[in-house]
Protein backbone atom coordinates (compact mmCIF):
# COMPACT_ATOMS: atom_id res chain seq x y z
CA UNK A 1 0.00 0.00 0.00
CA UNK A 2 1.30 3.42 -0.98
CA UNK A 3 1.29 6.24 1.54
CA UNK A 4 2.59 9.78 1.84
CA UNK A 5 4.78 10.73 4.75
CA UNK A 6 4.60 14.42 5.65
CA UNK A 7 6.89 16.11 8.18
CA UNK A 8 6.56 19.49 9.87
CA UNK A 9 8.06 21.79 7.21
CA UNK A 10 8.16 25.30 8.65
CA UNK A 11 7.86 28.09 6.08
CA UNK A 12 7.05 27.08 2.51
CA UNK A 13 8.67 29.23 -0.16
CA UNK A 14 8.96 28.99 -3.92
CA UNK A 15 7.03 28.92 -7.15
CA UNK A 16 5.11 26.25 -9.02
CA UNK A 17 3.67 25.96 -12.52
CA UNK A 18 0.01 25.00 -12.44
CA UNK A 19 -1.12 22.25 -14.84
CA UNK A 20 -4.33 22.22 -16.87
CA UNK A 21 -7.53 21.80 -14.91
CA UNK A 22 -8.68 18.27 -14.15
CA UNK A 23 -12.33 19.27 -14.34
CA UNK A 24 -11.90 20.94 -17.74
CA UNK A 25 -9.69 18.19 -19.13
CA UNK A 26 -12.22 15.49 -18.28
CA UNK A 27 -14.87 17.38 -20.26
CA UNK A 28 -12.58 18.32 -23.18
CA UNK A 29 -11.29 14.78 -23.74
CA UNK A 30 -14.84 13.49 -24.04
CA UNK A 31 -16.03 16.49 -26.06
CA UNK A 32 -13.40 15.41 -28.59
CA UNK A 33 -15.62 12.35 -29.35
CA UNK A 34 -18.02 14.74 -31.03
CA UNK A 35 -15.54 15.90 -33.66
CA UNK A 36 -15.43 14.45 -37.17
CA UNK A 37 -11.68 14.94 -37.45
CA UNK A 38 -8.47 14.94 -35.40
CA UNK A 39 -8.32 17.06 -32.24
CA UNK A 40 -5.22 18.18 -30.35
CA UNK A 41 -5.53 19.13 -26.69
CA UNK A 42 -2.84 20.81 -24.62
CA UNK A 43 -2.60 21.24 -20.86
CA UNK A 44 -4.10 17.84 -20.07
CA UNK A 45 -2.62 16.74 -16.71
CA UNK A 46 -1.12 13.28 -16.13
CA UNK A 47 -3.61 12.12 -13.51
CA UNK A 48 -5.41 8.85 -12.86
CA UNK A 49 -8.80 10.14 -14.08
CA UNK A 50 -7.23 10.91 -17.47
CA UNK A 51 -5.70 7.39 -17.62
CA UNK A 52 -9.19 5.94 -17.10
CA UNK A 53 -10.51 8.01 -20.01
CA UNK A 54 -7.61 6.74 -22.11
CA UNK A 55 -8.69 3.18 -21.24
CA UNK A 56 -12.32 3.86 -22.16
CA UNK A 57 -11.18 5.48 -25.41
CA UNK A 58 -9.24 2.36 -26.36
CA UNK A 59 -12.33 0.23 -25.64
CA UNK A 60 -14.61 2.30 -27.89
CA UNK A 61 -12.11 2.81 -30.71
CA UNK A 62 -11.15 6.44 -30.12
CA UNK A 63 -7.40 6.80 -30.75
CA UNK A 64 -5.68 8.85 -28.08
CA UNK A 65 -1.93 9.37 -27.95
CA UNK A 66 0.31 11.62 -25.90
CA UNK A 67 2.99 13.59 -27.78
CA UNK A 68 5.18 16.17 -26.07
CA UNK A 69 2.67 17.54 -23.60
CA UNK A 70 -0.24 17.31 -26.04
CA UNK A 71 -2.93 14.69 -26.44
CA UNK A 72 -3.88 13.87 -30.02
CA UNK A 73 -7.30 12.33 -30.43
CA UNK A 74 -8.77 10.66 -33.49
CA UNK A 75 -12.50 10.11 -32.93
CA UNK A 76 -13.21 8.89 -36.47
CA UNK A 77 -12.98 5.21 -35.66
CA UNK A 78 -15.24 5.05 -32.62
CA UNK A 79 -17.09 1.76 -33.08
CA UNK A 80 -18.85 1.32 -29.77
CA UNK A 81 -20.96 3.37 -27.41
CA UNK A 82 -20.90 0.78 -24.63
CA UNK A 83 -18.77 1.86 -21.68
CA UNK A 84 -17.53 -0.70 -19.16
CA UNK A 85 -19.48 -0.02 -15.92
CA UNK A 86 -16.35 -0.60 -13.80
CA UNK A 87 -14.42 2.08 -15.68
CA UNK A 88 -17.36 4.50 -15.68
CA UNK A 89 -17.75 4.21 -11.92
CA UNK A 90 -14.07 4.65 -11.14
CA UNK A 91 -14.29 8.43 -11.66
CA UNK A 92 -16.98 11.10 -11.64
CA UNK A 93 -17.06 12.72 -15.04
CA UNK A 94 -17.84 9.52 -16.98
CA UNK A 95 -21.34 11.00 -17.39
CA UNK A 96 -19.89 13.19 -20.17
CA UNK A 97 -19.57 10.07 -22.34
CA UNK A 98 -23.35 9.68 -22.01
CA UNK A 99 -24.00 13.17 -23.44
CA UNK A 100 -21.34 13.04 -26.15
CA UNK A 101 -21.94 9.51 -27.44
CA UNK A 102 -25.72 10.01 -27.35
CA UNK A 103 -25.24 13.11 -29.50
CA UNK A 104 -23.06 11.30 -32.00
CA UNK A 105 -24.52 7.79 -32.12
CA UNK A 106 -28.03 8.08 -30.65
CA UNK A 107 -27.44 5.39 -28.03
CA UNK A 108 -25.10 4.83 -25.13
CA UNK A 109 -24.80 2.19 -22.43
CA UNK A 110 -22.75 3.29 -19.46
CA UNK A 111 -22.12 2.63 -15.76
CA UNK A 112 -23.02 5.12 -13.03
CA UNK A 113 -20.52 7.85 -12.17
CA UNK A 114 -18.14 7.34 -9.23
CA UNK A 115 -15.64 9.92 -8.00
CA UNK A 116 -15.52 11.49 -4.58
CA UNK A 117 -18.18 10.19 -2.23
CA UNK A 118 -20.08 13.07 -0.64
CA UNK A 119 -22.99 10.78 0.40
CA UNK A 120 -25.33 12.29 -2.19
CA UNK A 121 -24.36 13.25 -5.76
CA UNK A 122 -27.54 12.88 -7.83
CA UNK A 123 -27.58 12.91 -11.64
CA UNK A 124 -31.27 13.82 -12.02
CA UNK A 125 -30.42 17.02 -13.92
CA UNK A 126 -28.32 15.10 -16.46
CA UNK A 127 -31.25 12.74 -17.01
CA UNK A 128 -33.63 15.67 -17.27
CA UNK A 129 -31.46 17.10 -20.07
CA UNK A 130 -31.38 13.83 -22.05
CA UNK A 131 -35.14 13.43 -21.74
CA UNK A 132 -35.82 17.04 -22.68
CA UNK A 133 -33.82 16.51 -25.88
CA UNK A 134 -36.01 13.52 -26.72
CA UNK A 135 -34.02 10.57 -25.36
CA UNK A 136 -35.31 7.63 -23.34
CA UNK A 137 -33.32 6.74 -20.25
CA UNK A 138 -33.47 3.22 -18.82
CA UNK A 139 -31.87 2.56 -15.46
CA UNK A 140 -30.50 -0.90 -14.61
CA UNK A 141 -28.63 -2.15 -11.52
CA UNK A 142 -25.13 -1.03 -12.46
CA UNK A 143 -25.60 0.81 -15.74
CA UNK A 144 -28.02 2.99 -17.64
CA UNK A 145 -28.94 3.23 -21.30
CA UNK A 146 -29.77 6.49 -23.06
CA UNK A 147 -31.14 6.42 -26.59
CA UNK A 148 -32.94 8.60 -29.07
CA UNK A 149 -33.99 8.19 -32.68
CA UNK A 150 -33.30 11.89 -33.05
CA UNK A 151 -32.28 14.61 -30.59
CA UNK A 152 -34.28 17.81 -30.88
CA UNK A 153 -33.35 21.16 -29.35
CA UNK A 154 -35.33 22.08 -26.22
CA UNK A 155 -35.88 24.69 -23.55
CA UNK A 156 -34.21 23.38 -20.35
CA UNK A 157 -34.34 24.92 -16.89
CA UNK A 158 -31.93 23.49 -14.32
CA UNK A 159 -33.57 23.01 -10.92
CA UNK A 160 -30.21 23.57 -9.30
CA UNK A 161 -27.00 25.11 -10.59
CA UNK A 162 -24.78 22.25 -11.74
CA UNK A 163 -21.55 22.48 -13.69
CA UNK A 164 -21.60 18.80 -14.67
CA UNK A 165 -25.13 18.85 -16.10
CA UNK A 166 -24.54 22.21 -17.83
CA UNK A 167 -21.49 20.79 -19.63
CA UNK A 168 -23.34 17.56 -20.41
CA UNK A 169 -26.25 19.53 -21.86
CA UNK A 170 -23.87 21.33 -24.21
CA UNK A 171 -22.32 18.00 -25.27
CA UNK A 172 -25.71 16.40 -25.89
CA UNK A 173 -27.29 19.40 -27.64
CA UNK A 174 -24.43 20.52 -29.85
CA UNK A 175 -25.48 18.22 -32.72
CA UNK A 176 -29.22 18.18 -31.94
CA UNK A 177 -31.73 19.49 -34.44
CA UNK A 178 -32.58 23.14 -33.84
CA UNK A 179 -32.12 25.41 -30.85
CA UNK A 180 -31.53 24.45 -27.22
CA UNK A 181 -31.72 27.03 -24.47
CA UNK A 182 -30.30 26.35 -21.01
CA UNK A 183 -31.56 28.44 -18.11
CA UNK A 184 -30.04 28.65 -14.63
CA UNK A 185 -26.84 27.28 -16.16
CA UNK A 186 -23.57 27.07 -14.21
CA UNK A 187 -21.06 29.83 -15.02
CA UNK A 188 -17.89 27.96 -14.01
CA UNK A 189 -14.68 28.51 -16.02
CA UNK A 190 -14.79 24.81 -16.99
CA UNK A 191 -18.21 25.35 -18.63
CA UNK A 192 -16.78 28.26 -20.61
CA UNK A 193 -13.65 26.29 -21.53
CA UNK A 194 -15.74 23.43 -22.92
CA UNK A 195 -17.92 25.84 -24.92
CA UNK A 196 -14.87 27.64 -26.33
CA UNK A 197 -13.40 24.31 -27.42
CA UNK A 198 -16.63 23.10 -29.03
CA UNK A 199 -17.06 26.42 -30.83
CA UNK A 200 -13.52 26.08 -32.09
CA UNK A 201 -14.67 22.81 -33.73
CA UNK A 202 -17.59 24.61 -35.37
CA UNK A 203 -20.30 24.33 -32.69
CA UNK A 204 -22.65 27.28 -32.18
CA UNK A 205 -22.85 27.83 -28.43
CA UNK A 206 -23.65 31.35 -27.23
CA UNK A 207 -23.67 32.79 -23.72
CA UNK A 208 -21.47 30.27 -21.87
CA UNK A 209 -20.33 32.00 -18.68
CA UNK A 210 -23.82 33.45 -18.14
CA UNK A 211 -26.89 31.74 -16.71
CA UNK A 212 -28.49 31.44 -20.15
CA UNK A 213 -26.80 29.41 -22.85
CA UNK A 214 -28.12 29.07 -26.39
CA UNK A 215 -27.00 26.21 -28.59
CA UNK A 216 -27.84 26.07 -32.28
CA UNK A 217 -27.37 22.47 -33.38
CA UNK A 218 -24.89 21.66 -36.15
CA UNK A 219 -24.49 18.43 -38.12
CA UNK A 220 -20.70 18.39 -38.44
CA UNK A 221 -17.79 19.30 -36.17
CA UNK A 222 -14.27 19.81 -37.50
CA UNK A 223 -11.06 18.84 -35.84
CA UNK A 224 -9.12 21.52 -33.98
CA UNK A 225 -6.68 22.47 -31.26
CA UNK A 226 -7.31 23.75 -27.76
CA UNK A 227 -5.45 24.17 -24.45
CA UNK A 228 -7.24 23.44 -21.17
CA UNK A 229 -7.49 26.28 -18.67
CA UNK A 230 -5.19 26.11 -15.62
CA UNK A 231 -6.34 24.26 -12.52
CA UNK A 232 -7.73 26.92 -10.17
CA UNK A 233 -8.19 24.32 -7.42
CA UNK A 234 -4.57 23.19 -7.39
CA UNK A 235 -3.48 26.84 -7.55
CA UNK A 236 -5.68 27.72 -4.56
CA UNK A 237 -4.23 24.93 -2.44
CA UNK A 238 -0.64 26.01 -3.17
CA UNK A 239 -1.43 29.62 -2.28
CA UNK A 240 -2.95 28.50 1.02
CA UNK A 241 0.29 26.61 1.73
CA UNK A 242 2.04 30.00 1.99
CA UNK A 243 -0.19 30.87 4.94
CA UNK A 244 0.58 27.74 6.93
CA UNK A 245 3.79 28.91 8.57
CA UNK A 246 4.37 32.35 7.08
CA UNK A 247 6.02 31.62 3.72
CA UNK A 248 5.79 33.02 0.19
CA UNK A 249 4.40 30.97 -2.71
CA UNK A 250 3.92 31.97 -6.35
CA UNK A 251 1.67 30.03 -8.70
CA UNK A 252 2.48 30.51 -12.38
CA UNK A 253 0.40 30.00 -15.53
CA UNK A 254 -2.90 30.75 -13.82
CA UNK A 255 -5.91 32.94 -14.57
CA UNK A 256 -6.12 35.05 -11.37
CA UNK A 257 -9.78 35.99 -12.00
CA UNK A 258 -10.76 32.33 -11.60
CA UNK A 259 -9.59 32.49 -7.99
CA UNK A 260 -11.32 35.72 -6.95
CA UNK A 261 -13.38 34.27 -4.08
CA UNK A 262 -10.45 32.24 -2.78
CA UNK A 263 -8.09 35.24 -2.87
CA UNK A 264 -10.66 37.45 -1.12
CA UNK A 265 -11.01 34.97 1.74
CA UNK A 266 -7.24 34.50 1.95
CA UNK A 267 -6.98 38.27 2.36
CA UNK A 268 -9.54 38.13 5.17
CA UNK A 269 -7.52 35.55 7.08
CA UNK A 270 -4.39 37.68 6.81
CA UNK A 271 -2.53 36.33 3.78
CA UNK A 272 -1.30 39.12 1.53
CA UNK A 273 -1.90 38.35 -2.16
CA UNK A 274 -0.47 40.01 -5.28
CA UNK A 275 -1.70 39.17 -8.77
CA UNK A 276 0.12 39.57 -12.08
CA UNK A 277 -1.35 38.78 -15.48
CA UNK A 278 -0.80 35.06 -15.19
CA UNK A 279 0.71 34.55 -11.76
CA UNK A 280 -0.28 35.07 -8.13
CA UNK A 281 1.99 35.39 -5.10
CA UNK A 282 0.73 34.74 -1.57
CA UNK A 283 2.67 36.11 1.41
CA UNK A 284 1.97 34.49 4.75
CA UNK A 285 2.50 36.84 7.66
CA UNK A 286 2.78 34.09 10.25
CA UNK A 287 -0.41 35.23 11.94
CA UNK A 288 -3.81 34.11 10.68
CA UNK A 289 -7.28 35.38 11.60
CA UNK A 290 -10.30 33.14 12.07
CA UNK A 291 -13.10 33.56 9.56
CA UNK A 292 -16.32 32.13 8.18
CA UNK A 293 -16.43 30.31 4.83
CA UNK A 294 -19.61 29.45 2.95
CA UNK A 295 -19.17 27.54 -0.28
CA UNK A 296 -21.23 28.31 -3.35
CA UNK A 297 -21.21 27.57 -7.04
CA UNK A 298 -18.83 29.73 -9.10
CA UNK A 299 -18.11 32.62 -8.60
CA UNK A 300 -18.71 31.68 -4.94
CA UNK A 301 -16.06 30.05 -2.76
CA UNK A 302 -15.43 26.64 -4.38
CA UNK A 303 -16.50 23.57 -2.42
CA UNK A 304 -13.27 21.97 -3.71
CA UNK A 305 -11.28 24.56 -1.76
CA UNK A 306 -13.10 24.33 1.58
CA UNK A 307 -11.07 21.30 2.64
CA UNK A 308 -7.58 22.83 2.15
CA UNK A 309 -8.95 26.06 3.66
CA UNK A 310 -9.98 24.09 6.74
CA UNK A 311 -6.36 22.97 7.18
CA UNK A 312 -5.32 26.62 7.08
CA UNK A 313 -7.99 27.72 9.54
CA UNK A 314 -6.71 25.16 12.07
CA UNK A 315 -3.71 27.50 12.34
CA UNK A 316 -5.84 30.64 12.87
CA UNK A 317 -6.41 31.46 16.54
CA UNK A 318 -10.11 31.70 17.39
CA UNK A 319 -13.32 30.24 16.04
CA UNK A 320 -13.83 29.63 12.34
CA UNK A 321 -16.86 28.11 10.66
CA UNK A 322 -16.81 26.33 7.29
CA UNK A 323 -20.22 25.69 5.73
CA UNK A 324 -20.62 23.64 2.56
CA UNK A 325 -23.93 24.28 0.84
CA UNK A 326 -22.92 22.62 -2.42
CA UNK A 327 -22.13 19.25 -0.83
CA UNK A 328 -23.44 19.48 2.76
CA UNK A 329 -21.84 16.15 3.73
CA UNK A 330 -18.38 16.90 2.31
CA UNK A 331 -16.69 16.64 5.69
CA UNK A 332 -15.01 13.22 5.81
CA UNK A 333 -11.70 15.00 6.44
CA UNK A 334 -12.92 16.30 9.82
CA UNK A 335 -12.64 12.96 11.63
CA UNK A 336 -9.12 12.58 10.21
CA UNK A 337 -8.07 16.07 11.33
CA UNK A 338 -9.20 15.19 14.84
CA UNK A 339 -6.66 12.36 14.76
CA UNK A 340 -4.00 15.07 14.46
CA UNK A 341 -5.41 16.82 17.54
CA UNK A 342 -7.59 19.38 15.74
CA UNK A 343 -10.50 20.77 17.75
CA UNK A 344 -13.24 20.67 15.18
CA UNK A 345 -16.93 19.80 15.48
CA UNK A 346 -19.50 19.01 12.83
CA UNK A 347 -23.06 20.27 12.97
CA UNK A 348 -25.33 19.86 9.95
CA UNK A 349 -23.54 21.37 6.94
CA UNK A 350 -20.85 23.17 8.96
CA UNK A 351 -17.51 22.48 10.60
CA UNK A 352 -16.80 24.55 13.73
CA UNK A 353 -13.07 24.99 14.23
CA UNK A 354 -11.16 26.17 17.30
CA UNK A 355 -7.93 27.21 15.65
CA UNK A 356 -4.45 27.64 17.05
CA UNK A 357 -4.34 24.24 18.76
CA UNK A 358 -1.01 22.49 18.04
CA UNK A 359 -1.30 19.49 15.72
CA UNK A 360 0.58 16.25 16.27
CA UNK A 361 1.47 13.83 13.44
CA UNK A 362 -0.54 10.61 13.20
CA UNK A 363 -1.93 8.16 10.63
CA UNK A 364 -4.77 9.66 8.62
CA UNK A 365 -6.72 8.47 5.61
CA UNK A 366 -7.69 10.58 2.60
CA UNK A 367 -11.19 9.61 1.50
CA UNK A 368 -11.32 11.94 -1.52
CA UNK A 369 -9.08 14.15 -3.60
CA UNK A 370 -9.37 17.45 -1.68
CA UNK A 371 -9.51 15.70 1.70
CA UNK A 372 -6.06 14.55 0.57
CA UNK A 373 -4.86 18.14 0.04
CA UNK A 374 -6.31 19.14 3.38
CA UNK A 375 -4.49 16.34 5.23
CA UNK A 376 -1.30 17.04 3.35
CA UNK A 377 -1.33 20.71 4.41
CA UNK A 378 -2.26 19.78 7.98
CA UNK A 379 0.55 17.20 7.99
CA UNK A 380 3.09 19.86 6.97
CA UNK A 381 1.99 22.00 9.93
CA UNK A 382 1.82 19.16 12.48
CA UNK A 383 4.71 18.24 14.79
CA UNK A 384 6.48 15.03 13.79
CA UNK A 385 5.41 12.66 11.01
CA UNK A 386 2.00 12.26 9.44
CA UNK A 387 1.17 9.16 7.44
CA UNK A 388 -1.48 9.74 4.76
CA UNK A 389 -3.11 6.71 3.15
CA UNK A 390 -5.74 6.83 0.39
CA UNK A 391 -3.13 8.13 -2.06
CA UNK A 392 -5.22 6.81 -4.96
CA UNK A 393 -7.79 9.54 -4.27
CA UNK A 394 -5.13 12.25 -4.36
CA UNK A 395 -3.68 10.87 -7.59
CA UNK A 396 -7.09 11.20 -9.28
CA UNK A 397 -6.57 14.93 -9.28
CA UNK A 398 -2.90 15.76 -8.73
CA UNK A 399 -0.02 15.32 -11.12
CA UNK A 400 3.23 14.75 -9.21
CA UNK A 401 1.84 15.92 -5.88
CA UNK A 402 5.08 15.08 -4.07
CA UNK A 403 7.42 16.79 -6.55
CA UNK A 404 5.39 19.98 -6.75
CA UNK A 405 4.99 20.41 -2.97
CA UNK A 406 8.66 19.50 -2.43
CA UNK A 407 9.61 22.30 -4.84
CA UNK A 408 8.26 24.83 -2.30
CA UNK A 409 10.09 23.19 0.59
CA UNK A 410 7.51 20.68 1.82
CA UNK A 411 9.02 17.65 3.52
CA UNK A 412 7.05 14.91 1.82
CA UNK A 413 7.79 11.47 0.49
CA UNK A 414 5.81 8.73 -1.25
CA UNK A 415 6.43 5.35 0.33
CA UNK A 416 5.31 1.77 0.07
CA UNK A 417 4.14 0.26 3.34
CA UNK A 418 5.85 -3.07 3.91
CA UNK A 419 5.03 -5.79 6.39
CA UNK A 420 8.04 -5.01 8.64
CA UNK A 421 7.09 -1.37 8.95
CA UNK A 422 3.44 -2.01 9.72
CA UNK A 423 3.68 -2.85 13.47
CA UNK A 424 5.61 0.41 14.03
CA UNK A 425 2.95 2.43 12.24
CA UNK A 426 -0.14 0.67 13.51
CA UNK A 427 -0.07 2.40 16.92
CA UNK A 428 -0.59 5.69 15.07
CA UNK A 429 -3.88 4.48 13.61
CA UNK A 430 -5.16 3.51 17.06
C1 LIG B 1 -15.50 16.25 -12.48
C2 LIG B 1 -15.97 17.56 -11.99
O1 LIG B 1 -16.05 18.51 -12.72
N1 LIG B 1 -16.23 17.65 -10.69
C3 LIG B 1 -16.65 18.91 -10.11
C4 LIG B 1 -18.11 19.10 -10.39
O2 LIG B 1 -18.79 17.96 -9.88
P1 LIG B 1 -20.29 17.69 -10.30
O3 LIG B 1 -20.43 17.98 -11.76
O4 LIG B 1 -20.66 16.35 -9.79
O5 LIG B 1 -21.02 18.80 -9.47
P2 LIG B 1 -22.24 19.71 -9.88
O6 LIG B 1 -21.77 21.05 -10.29
O7 LIG B 1 -23.08 18.96 -10.82
O8 LIG B 1 -22.99 19.81 -8.48
C5 LIG B 1 -23.46 21.04 -7.97
C6 LIG B 1 -24.66 20.79 -7.11
O9 LIG B 1 -25.72 20.29 -7.91
C7 LIG B 1 -26.26 19.11 -7.36
N2 LIG B 1 -26.72 18.28 -8.49
C8 LIG B 1 -25.87 18.04 -9.53
C9 LIG B 1 -26.29 17.29 -10.62
C10 LIG B 1 -27.60 16.78 -10.62
O10 LIG B 1 -28.04 16.09 -11.57
N3 LIG B 1 -28.41 17.02 -9.58
C11 LIG B 1 -28.00 17.77 -8.50
O11 LIG B 1 -28.77 17.99 -7.55
C12 LIG B 1 -25.11 18.50 -6.59
O12 LIG B 1 -25.55 17.60 -5.60
C13 LIG B 1 -24.44 19.74 -6.01
O13 LIG B 1 -25.14 20.16 -4.86
O14 LIG B 1 -18.56 20.30 -9.75
C14 LIG B 1 -18.43 20.27 -8.32
C15 LIG B 1 -19.05 21.56 -7.79
O15 LIG B 1 -18.33 22.66 -8.19
C16 LIG B 1 -16.98 20.10 -7.93
O16 LIG B 1 -16.91 19.91 -6.54
C17 LIG B 1 -16.37 18.90 -8.62
O17 LIG B 1 -14.97 18.91 -8.45
C1 LIG C 1 -14.96 16.53 -6.23
C2 LIG C 1 -13.93 16.45 -7.04
O1 LIG C 1 -13.75 15.54 -8.01
P1 LIG C 1 -14.84 14.60 -8.70
O2 LIG C 1 -16.01 15.43 -9.04
O3 LIG C 1 -14.10 14.12 -9.91
O4 LIG C 1 -15.17 13.50 -7.73
C3 LIG C 1 -12.79 17.38 -6.93
O5 LIG C 1 -12.03 17.47 -7.91
O6 LIG C 1 -12.63 18.01 -5.88
Automatic annotation (TrEMBL):
Subcellular location field: Cytoplasm
Q: Which Pfam families match?
A: EPSP_synthase
Where's the Enolpyruvate transferase domain? 9-401
Look up the record and name the pathway of this protein: Cell wall biogenesis; peptidoglycan biosynthesis
In this protein, the active site sits at: 116
Output the InterPro entries linked to this UniProt entry.
Answer: Enolpyruvate_Tfrase_dom (IPR001986), Enolpyruvate_Tfrase_sf (IPR036968), MurA_subfamily (IPR050068), RNA3'P_cycl/enolpyr_Trfase_a/b (IPR013792), UDP_GlcNAc_COvinyl_MurA (IPR005750)
> What job does this protein perform?
Cell wall formation. Adds enolpyruvyl to UDP-N-acetylglucosamine.
- Organism listed in the record: Paenibacillus marchantiophytorum
Which residues participate in UDP-N-acetyl-alpha-D-glucosamine binding? 92, 121-125, 304, 326
| NCBIfam families with a match to the protein in the record | murA (TIGR01072), PRK09369.1 (NF006873)
Q: Which domain of life is it from?
A: Bacteria
Q: Which reaction does it catalyse?
A: phosphoenolpyruvate + UDP-N-acetyl-alpha-D-glucosamine = UDP-N-acetyl-3-O-(1-carboxyvinyl)-alpha-D-glucosamine + phosphate
Q: What is this protein called?
A: UDP-N-acetylglucosamine 1-carboxyvinyltransferase
Annotated binding of phosphoenolpyruvate, by residue: 22-23
Q: Which SUPFAM superfamilies match?
A: EPT/RTPC-like (SSF55205)
Keywords in alphabetical order: Cell cycle, Cell division, Cell shape, Cell wall biogenesis/degradation, Cytoplasm, Peptidoglycan synthesis, Pyruvate, Transferase
EC number from the UniProt entry: 2.5.1.7
Principal place of residence: cytoplasm
Amino acid sequence: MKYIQAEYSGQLNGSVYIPGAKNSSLALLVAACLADDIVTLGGIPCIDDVSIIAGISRDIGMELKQEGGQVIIDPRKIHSAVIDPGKASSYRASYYFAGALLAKFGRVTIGFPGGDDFVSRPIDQHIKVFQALGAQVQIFDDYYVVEAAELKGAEIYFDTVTSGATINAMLAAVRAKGRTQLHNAAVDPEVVDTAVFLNQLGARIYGAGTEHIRIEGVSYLNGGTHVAIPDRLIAGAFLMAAGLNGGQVTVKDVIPEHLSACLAKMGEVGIHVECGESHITAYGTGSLKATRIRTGMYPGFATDLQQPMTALLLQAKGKSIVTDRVFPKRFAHVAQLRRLGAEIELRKESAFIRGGVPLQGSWVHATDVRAGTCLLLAGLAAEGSTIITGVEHIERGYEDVIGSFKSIGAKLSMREMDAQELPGLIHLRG
